[in-house]
Automatic annotation (TrEMBL):
It comes from the Bacteria. Its EC number is 2.1.1.-. The keyword Methyltransferase applies. Residues 40-134 form the Methyltransferase domain. GO terms for biological process: methylation. This is Class I SAM-dependent methyltransferase.
Length: 249
């Protein structure tokens, strides 16, 4: 999933996202684990709101995304903030992740890992480059959200210059949500159509994959309130620590 044309107004359609609360949660977790600086990778950085907030906090950020359009948006924001020289951006598929060295931590937000059909490989790749004692902070949509909230529903977003219709179909047999996005620009009459999937992973599957690849799952909470999980939680937020390096494992 690349979010090609959608990249340019992703922030407008994602306007209700509480980046400040998300940043506070992530920064507090990093600080609590003694990670006050050093290299942190944002896996699926999107338009870079969180990436740039962590850059401003003093971390050496690597923003990674499969969409060149998303990365262009991040570059523009970084230039406006005077942060271009402090940020490395890589266009990569997380299933083929290849970094230049080790990282102290990794973050991944807004259900990036739900878009990956092979969760086990993605977690293995994140762990491969992480130092012992490193922290992996990420969120994922819950099975409840896929089945009950997205389901077979459609959502319409209206902005001044464009409109977007987001349609979902929950495929129970394959445990995934099939998504189509149609974008219409009012002034030019241009139309864009994108299709992608979100894959459903339950908590036991995620935990088992983390443990398999050298992580200990410390905490999992509601990814919107950051309080306890409930039966109607729509997003998980995970904090896992790397117990050994690949060579030790």
């Amino acid at each position: 999933m690349a979010y090609n044309e959608f990249a340019y107004f992703y922030d407008e359609f994602n306007g209700e996202a509480d980046y400040d609360a998300l940043y506070s949660q992530i920064h507090a977790k990093l600080e609590a684990h003694g990670i006050h600086d050093g290299i942190v990778a944002d896996l699926g950085c999107g338009t870079g709101e969180l990436t740039l907030m962590l850059t401003q906090a003093g971390y050496d950020m690597i923003g990674i995304d499969q969409s060149e359009e998303m990365l262009c948006v991040v570059r523009d924001k970084a230039e406006q903030l005077g942060l271009s020289g402090r940020l490395l951006l890589l266009r990569q598929d997380l299933l083929k992740l290849d970094l230049y060295g080790t990282i102290r931590a990794a973050v991944s937000t807004f259900d990036t890992f739900n878009h990956i059909p092979d969760l086990d490989t993605a977690i293995a790749n994140a762990g491969f480059f992480m130092e012992k004692g490193g922290v992996f902070l990420f969120d994922m949509n819950t099975p409840y959200k896929h089945q009950k909230v997205l389901g077979d529903n459609a959502f319409t977003f209206e902005e001044e210059d464009a409109s977007c219709v987001w349609r979902n179909h929950y495929n129970a047999a394959d445990r995934k949500v099939e998504i189509t996005v149609d974008i219409d620009y009012h002034e030019t009459g241009e139309h864009f159509h994108e299709e992608f999937c979100e894959y459903t992973y339950d908590l036991d599957t995620i935990r088992a994959s983390l443990e398999k690849h050298g992580f200990a799952l410390e905490t999992v909470c509601d990814g919107e309130t950051f309080g306890p999980l409930t039966e109607e939680s729509q997003r998980y937020f995970f904090c896992a620590t790397k117990q050994y390096t690949q060579l030790e494992g």
